[in-house]
Amino acid sequence: MKRRTRAIIIKEFFHILRDPRSLVIVLILPLLMMFIFGYSLSFDINQIETVVVDYSQSELSCSLIEKFAADPYVLTGVYPGRINSVNPVAQAEDMLRKGSIKQYVIIPVNFSSGYHKDIKQEITAVIEGTDSNIANIVHQYNEMLLMDFVSERKNLKDFLSINTKTYFNPENKSSFFIIPGLVAVIMMMISALLTSLSVSREKETGSIELLYISPLSSREIIIGKTIPYIFVALMEGAFIILFAKFWFIVPFRGNFLILLVFALLYVITGLSFGITISTLASTQKVAMMATLLATLLPSILLSGFIFPLDSLPPVLRSFSYAVPATYFLLIIRGVILKGAGLQHFIREGIVLLAFSFIFLNIASIKFTGKRKNNR
User: Fold this and answer.
1) Using an 8 Å Cβ cutoff, are 343 and 198 in contact?
2) Which domains does the chain carry?
3) Phi, psi (deg, nearest 5) at residue 21
4) What is the pLDDT of residue 82?
5) pLDDT at residue 323 is higher than 90
């Protein structure tokens, strides 16, 4: 029995050595996972984009702005904010709604004069609170900066305070941030899965030969296989959005039609990606595994679903721009939680449209190549 067992052991060792793909999976995959998870699983904030609306225009207010700007973690923009000019607060709030800044700070008109008259002054910090974790960190950071500013000057301790307002999620509920992101992840996974089995199913049943010899062009076949699933994916998306609203009580502050337009682009992107995988995969199992791997992990780790993109190193952050969920997460959270309009997400919509065009063309080219090889 020992000799027979030893023979099996030796055979398996030789089998492993003859199969370099297994060695790659065993040796490279754990290192790759450690690299991605090690950098992406982080709640640290490397950038706090801040706009300061300075109505005081005084030496003291300039000193406070310099305190914000000198900090390596705070990226500061300043609006002079003269009373007779265009409303800078409305512009800052629009930036907050779009997601280009994390907070804006308002310095009142009598900031410096109140100090000289020994009248207590209050600056206001309005924080984008869709992510309760980030909002709390920004709030604590503001308190720390203000404390440092006060400690550097005499008689400021009782004079200056900060009034913090949290927009879009005043109760700091994490579910308001997680649920819309989860909707985006599920929609991408379901959309890609719907079409990823389409062509590979035809390969397994043998009916792919009928498509190869049909008079239809490859582009027509790919588009024809994609369009029916658009309605199925949109119905699925509408169902999970309504479920999130009525079951998890997530507020819906925006326009449903605006979300529907962007959801259509996002669904087409997912379906196009799935059909691309389907043209490359030989079996349905391979197509399903490839789809799950290519949609779930990037959509969860590299899109800003849970962890802020600012915390990622530049290499991983560059990969996040190739993940469709990165753009749709900004849209769905902006529309649902902030009530943002169509004009806030033109760039994201164009990118999703470009993704769809690229994936459909890749699928068409691959399908054309397989048709030529099988003639």
Assistant:
1) no
2) 48-167 (3.40.1710.10), 174-373 (no CATH)
3) -65, -35
4) 46
5) yes
Average pLDDT in the 26-51 region? 72
Residue written as token pair 């669904």 = 267
The 8 Å CB, 24+ separation contacts for 302-306 are: 302/36, 302/40, 302/326, 303/184, 303/185, 303/329, 304/181, 304/329, 304/330, 305/181, 305/182, 305/184, 305/185, 305/329, 306/178, 306/181
At 9-32, the pLDDT tens digits run 777 677 667 766 656 666 676 677
- What are 244's two structure tokens? 């999130």
337: helix, strand or coil: helix
In whole angstroms, give the CA distance from residue 123 to residue 161.
6
**HSE-up (13 A, CA, CB side) for residue 308:** 19
Identity of the amino acid at 154: K
Residue 69 C-beta-side C-alpha neighbours within 13 Å? 11
First to last CA, the chain: 54
**Beta-carbon neighbour count of residue 31 at 10 Å?**
9
Cα distances (angstroms) measured from residue 54 to each of 4, 83, 143, 155:
83, 10, 18, 22
- Quick one: tokens of 133? 């974790």
- Does the pLDDT value for residue 83 go beyond 50? no
Q: Which residues contact 88 (CB under 8 A, 6 or more apart)?
A: 53, 79, 80, 81
Q: What are residue 233's phi and psi, to 5 degrees?
A: -65, -40
Phi, psi (5° rounding) for residue 75? -95, 115
Residue 340: phi and psi, rounded to 5, are: -65, 155
72 and 90 Cβ atoms separated by less than 8 Å: no
Report the length, in residues, of the chain: 375
Q: Which two tokens stand for residue 76?
A: 């500061």
Mean pLDDT of 167-181: 87
Global pTM reads 0.82
Contact 247, 166 (CB under 8 A): no
**Is the confidence at residue 112, as pLDDT, over 90?**
no
Give the residue, 176 or 7, on which the prediction is more confident: 176
Give the residue among 177, 340, 198 at the shortest CA–CA distance from 261: 340
SS3 122: strand
